[in-house]
Design a protein that fits this description.
Oligomer: single chain
Shape: globular
Radius of gyration: 21 Å
Largest sheet: 2 strands, antiparallel
Distance between the termini: 43 Å
Strand content: under 5%
Number of strands: 2
Order of helices and strands: HHHHHHHHHHHHHHHHHEE
């Protein structure tokens, strides 16, 4: 297991790109909690803090696919670094101003979210040209999913540590400063500078004109809703089982499950098509949410939470491969960014729905939502099976036959496998 991941990390540029992307995405991971802490420290209400954090989240969800399309059109350095700098400056304006002012905090937070660079999608677009072998790219996707679990665990700890040592303002400035450094590390690397998207056909829908991608996004809207509802149901559960400590352990259990599942999944090569494997993984994900309804003591509940998180990272890693195979030519970064946005929106919807459900029906109904959302995700994949039929033109997507018949990407190519004809669009236009 360790040798497979070690081989990837020893590949030239791989470790730098992974670490740089994780550091660059730090503002994403910590912005909601950092904004809330800063507003509260400045005397603002919880309602104001929550609203500002929500504005950041919404504008971030909007900005990711838009900037992803710009990356596909103009390359990574010309979009990622300016986006990171503008986002950090906007957050600095927010951190140095009055959060209760009428206009400035809302505009600055919105701008910070909107211009956050799509580093996550950008990294997944770079893996094929860095690792060269398709099997290694699939392992890297799993490692990427596991690394996300680490980032969303370490990020909040960094914020609380910065608050303890300095202040809430310092936590905001530090996280966004590190984000700029991470983005800089990525875009000055050789793979990022050399990477170019394939020529695209002009269409305002961009990546969303792929039926397979739309089906995948529909499924992961539901998966995101499952995660969002667990966060709320977990708070309700913790109220009767030890308060914040129980809630912390529950979230830790989810993260541990994701780490274990993603690590094991990425350590082996899988047979069969990714589309069919994704359906199985989502089914297992939905089933593993059901035991949360038992609501045992805190220790046992932590174990159930670990089981519930076991298939999240593997399903995400497999979803990355499916995006890879179904994104229209020239839209790969945008397509990955749409997956990020859809997951975030689904999580927000799950949180919004779980609140009134828990208030009216109690904790049990709150924990019923993740299983229901997981079942909906599975239903979407089953109903959309024709749209998710595996594309069969691998070579047209920029692959060449490597040693032993293993497909490898052409130099500097994106991970576009479908090579599908796109009738009705004018050639030569990249809008």
């Amino acid at each position: 297991m360790a040798s497979g991941y070690g081989e990837i990390l020893r590949t030239r540029h791989a470790a730098r790109l992974l670490v740089g992307t994780l550091v660059g995405r730090l503002p994403n991971a910590v912005a909601p909690i950092a904004i809330v802490l800063y507003v509260r420290a400045a005397g603002g209400s919880y309602s104001l803090a929550g609203a500002l954090a929500a504005v950041y989240g919404v504008t971030n969800a909007v900005g990711q696919p838009l900037l992803g399309r710009l990356v596909d059109l103009y390359g990574q350095p010309r979009v990622q670094l300016p986006g990171a700098v503008v986002s950090a400056l906007a957050m600095a304006v927010f951190a140095c101003g009055d959060p209760e002012a009428a206009v400035l905090p809302w505009v600055s937070v919105a701008l910070a979210g909107l211009t956050t660079p799509p580093l996550e999608g950008g990294l997944r677009a770079l893996w094929p040209s860095v690792l060269r072998e398709e099997k290694s790219v699939h392992t890297a996707y799993a490692m990427d999913a596991v690394a996300q679990e680490v980032m969303f665990t370490v990020g909040p700890l960094l914020v609380t540590g910065s608050v303890a040592l300095w202040s809430e303002r310092a936590a905001l400035l530090l996280a966004n400063g590190l984000g700029v450094l991470g983005a800089l590390s990525v875009v000055i690397s050789e793979p990022s500078r050399r990477w170019r998207s394939q020529e695209r056909e002009a269409h305002w829908l961009g990546a969303l004109r792929s039926p397979g991608l739309l089906a995948l996004l529909g499924a992961y809207l539901c998966v995101g809703a499952a995660i969002g509802s667990i966060n709320v149901a977990g708070v309700s559960y913790a109220d009767g089982h030890g308060g914040e400590t129980a809630y912390g352990w529950l979230l830790a259990g989810l993260g541990l499950g994701g780490l274990v599942g993603g690590t094991v999944y990425g350590a082996r090569q899988w047979t069969g098509t990714p589309e069919r494997r994704l359906t199985v993984l989502v089914a297992l994900l939905a089933v593993c949410y059901v035991p949360l309804l038992l609501r045992p003591g805190a220790v046992a509940m932590t174990g159930l939470a670990a089981v519930a998180g076991l298939f999240l990272a593997p399903s995400l890693a497999c979803a990355f491969v499916v995006v890879d195979r179904h994104a229209p030519r020239g839209t790969v970064t945008e397509a990955f960014s749409w997956l990020v946005t859809t997951f975030m929106v689904g999580s927000s919807l799950g949180t919004a729905v779980a609140g009134p459900v828990v208030e009216r029906g109690g904790t049990a109904w709150g924990f019923a939502l993740p299983g229901l959302a997981g079942a909906c995700a599975l239903l979407v994949l089953l109903l959309a099976a024709p749209a998710l039929r595996p594309p069969d033109a691998a070579v047209a997507g920029g692959l060449t036959a490597g040693p032993g018949g293993v497909s490898t990407p052409a130099e500097g190519a994106e991970n576009d496998r479908n090579g599908a004809a796109e009738f009705g669009f004018r050639s030569g236009h990249r809008a």
